[in-house]
Amino acid sequence: MPSPEVQPYTLPEPARKPHYVQALFSRIAGHYDLMNDVMTFGLHRRWKARACRALRLEAGQRALDLCCGTGDLALEILRQTPTARVVGVDFCEEMLAIARRRLRDAPCELMQGDAMRLPFEDDAFDGVVIAYGLRNVADAEGCLREIARVLRPGGRLAILEMSRPTPLLHGLSRGWRFAILPILGRLIARDGEAYQYLPHSAQAFPPQHALVEMMTRVGLQDARFENLMGGVCALHVAVAP
């Protein structure tokens, strides 16, 4: 199918990005989970469960849900490993407020924090998962370096992120992302701009192989990826040395 014309949109410069993204997610927090269900036809739940399984957590181990948003990955980690010690970090207080309500009876610590400067000692976690958050930081490689710092030797990182679809799905995915999502964003979240940012930020994010190389550069080992839904989404996994 022919690719749709992409409407003009300028992503924020790195220096402005943290403030811009924080304000954006503050606006859409109340509609975030519904929009994720609509955007992925509910598949994001299956993908997040897969990312949590990739951590291979054992009983009592400590996990970080970075850019935790409304807390669905933290909940999934606890569903899979009930005795895990889970910490969720996000920079958007409005998203955390929803996570706190969702996790009020769960053994999970939630805190507001900066993914570029994590408030934890070295080797603090057995696993770190980040879903749809890495493309929102000002410096993805710097964030990966900080994640590598807080992972203990042998600890695992799982990254779930929108990615580059295969040629077969490219036109369909482009039409959905650039033509349909902004309309749905205006109708459901009352914020078309936020859902213009989403596809453009995904387009600007490194493709699968480049992210593997970035993970390797920061010292992580055995970095690899798995395409989900033909590369519309990708799961990247690596191990701390």
Task: Please give a structural write-up.
The protein is α/β, with parallel strands linked by helices. It contains nine helices and seven strands; from the N terminus they run H-H-H-E-H-E-H-E-E-H-E-H-H-H-E-E. The protein has helices at 17-28, 32-40, 43-53, 72-80, 93-102, 140-150, 167-189, 194-204, 208-217; strands at 62-66, 85-90, 108-112, 125-131, 151-162, 221-228, 233-239. Strands 3-2-1-4-5-7-6 form a seven-stranded mixed beta sheet, with helices on both faces. Helix 2 runs antiparallel to helix 7 (167-189), helix 3 crosses helix 4 and helix 7 (167-189) runs antiparallel to helix 8 (194-204). The longest helix has 23 residues, at 167-189. The radius of gyration is 17 Å and the shape is globular. The termini are far apart. The model has no long low-confidence stretch (mean pLDDT 92).
Provide keyphrases for this structure.
241 residues; 7-stranded mixed sheet; 21% strand; 9 helices
List the helices and strands and how they pair.
Elements (H helix, E strand, L loop, with lengths): L16 H12 L3 H9 L2 H11 L8 E5 L5 H9 L4 E6 L2 H10 L5 E5 L12 E7 L8 H11 E12 L4 H23 L4 H11 L3 H10 L3 E8 L4 E7 L2
Parallel strand pairs: 1-2, 1-4, 2-3, 4-5
Antiparallel strand pairs: 5-7, 6-7
